[in-house]
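PROTEIN DESIGN WORKSHEET
SECTION A - STRUCTURE
LENGTH: 379
TOKENS:
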């Protein structure tokens, strides 16, 4: 039985072309800080990658800080920018809400303005929450669970005009939709390579020129002291290659994703009653994410049966230490309890095929038919 990965918001498989681009840098060695020719070759790979990231993201090379991934990039931004009160959306990933909660324990006043029922931030509530003590507003660009694209540019226009820097966690957006740093108007933006078929363990933070961001680490002074440590050049080259591959194929990739995502939803909704969690307007949705509730079904049972059937998906609720906890995103959207427990996230990657989608529809159909209580099945 062929396994099918529809859990690609968790991570994506490496593109073989990315591996080919990384291999020579891994094998050659050479510290980019060294002045000999080996070091200079490594440095060229590093700086060329910086230019690629800047070009694809609409930033300038000096604004790119390479990190170990999305978690580090978000931590760097939140701890670096927040000097007082924080306004953070209630649907942030733990990579943002974790540092925010940490600052709260140290006395920071934190406000979490509502999202609407589709999981999109309420701009008026955000603007109202900003006051003279606010030192940071943070709103992710696309939500990892529902795929809801957030009005980050409009928030930045409001907050930055009041002198409040905006950070956006764009980890789920980069490589899925076009992202332009300067057009968003934010102070900082975080991204991570393993979400767009690059390697895990590398990402970046874009820091708008003129924004002062104290470093979190101190050491050898690499990356102008902003993020010291010997840069993993092969990983960085791989990340830049993955971004170039995305950019060369982005329109076709998005159209393909949208068609596959909709084929999946209509194939499932022909057989069962399903409830989509997330926005309806196409411009507010990631093209490759679909979060569906199967009323009356136990999501845990569905996930496990799908796993046995070779299909990887994830739940809208997280299981930790044996207890299933509701997703903060779905809770913030006001999703009722039974749907919280029955919601499943399907997320597609660049190599997902129509045949795989049809096979998933078939396998889900067989499983739900077996475990359903009867109510959700269409006759
Ligand atoms: N932010 C979002 C929205 C994510 O989905 C993730 C990963 O799941 C992260 C941040 C963390 O990124 P990384 O795994 O590179 O640390």
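SECTION B - SEQUENCE
RESIDUE ASSIGNMENT:
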């Amino acid at each position: 039985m062929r396994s099918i990965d529809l859990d690609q918001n968790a991570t994506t498989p490496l593109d073989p072309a990315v591996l080919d681009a990384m291999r020579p840098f891994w094998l050659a060695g050479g510290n980019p800080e060294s002045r000999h020719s080996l070091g200079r070759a490594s440095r060229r790979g590093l700086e060329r990658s910086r230019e690629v990231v800047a070009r694809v993201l609409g930033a300038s090379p000096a604004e790119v800080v390479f990190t170990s991934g999305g978690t580090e990039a978000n931590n760097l931004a939140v701890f670096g920018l927040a000097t007082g009160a924080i306004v953070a959306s209630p649907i942030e990933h733990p990579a943002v809400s974790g540092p925010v909660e940490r600052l709260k324990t140290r006395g920071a006043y934190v406000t979490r303005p509502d999202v609407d029922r589709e999981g999109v931030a309420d701009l008026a509530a955000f603007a109202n929450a900003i006051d003279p003590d606010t030192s940071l507003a943070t709103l992710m660009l696309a939500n990892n669970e529902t795929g809801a694209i957030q009005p980050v540019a409009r928030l930045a226009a409001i907050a930055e005009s009041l002198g409040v820097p905006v950070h956006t966690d764009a980890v789920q957006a980069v490589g899925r939709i076009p992202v332009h740093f300067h057009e968003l108007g934010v102070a900082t933006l975080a991204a991570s390579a393993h979400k767009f078929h690059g390697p895990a363990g590398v990402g970046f933070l874009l820091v708008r020129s003129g924004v002062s961001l104290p470093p979190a680490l101190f050491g050898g002074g690499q990356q102008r002291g902003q993020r010291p440590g010997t840069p993993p050049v092969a990983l960085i080259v791989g990340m830049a290659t993955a971004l170039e591959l995305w950019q060369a194929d982005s329109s076709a990739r998005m159209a393909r994703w949208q068609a596959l995502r909709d084929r999946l939803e209509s194939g499932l909704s022909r057989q069962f009653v399903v409830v989509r969690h997330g926005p309806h307007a196409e411009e507010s949705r990631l093209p490759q994410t679909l979060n569906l509730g199967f009323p009356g079904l136990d999501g845990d049972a569905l996930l496990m049966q799908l796993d046995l059937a070779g299909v990887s998906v994830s739940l809208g609720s997280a299981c930790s230490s044996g207890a299933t906890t509701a997703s903060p995103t779905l809770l913030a959207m006001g999703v009722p309890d039974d749907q919280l427990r029955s919601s499943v996230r399907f997320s597609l990657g660049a190599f997902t095929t129509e045949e795989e989608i049809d096979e998933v529809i078939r396998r889900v159909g067989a499983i739900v038919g077996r475990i359903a209580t009867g109510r959700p099945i269409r006759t």
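SECTION C - NOTES
Residues 69-71, 74, 93, 95, 140, 144, 169, 171-172, 192, 194, 203 surround pyridoxal-5'-phosphate (CB under 6 Å).
The chain has two domains: 4-12+250-373, 16-244.
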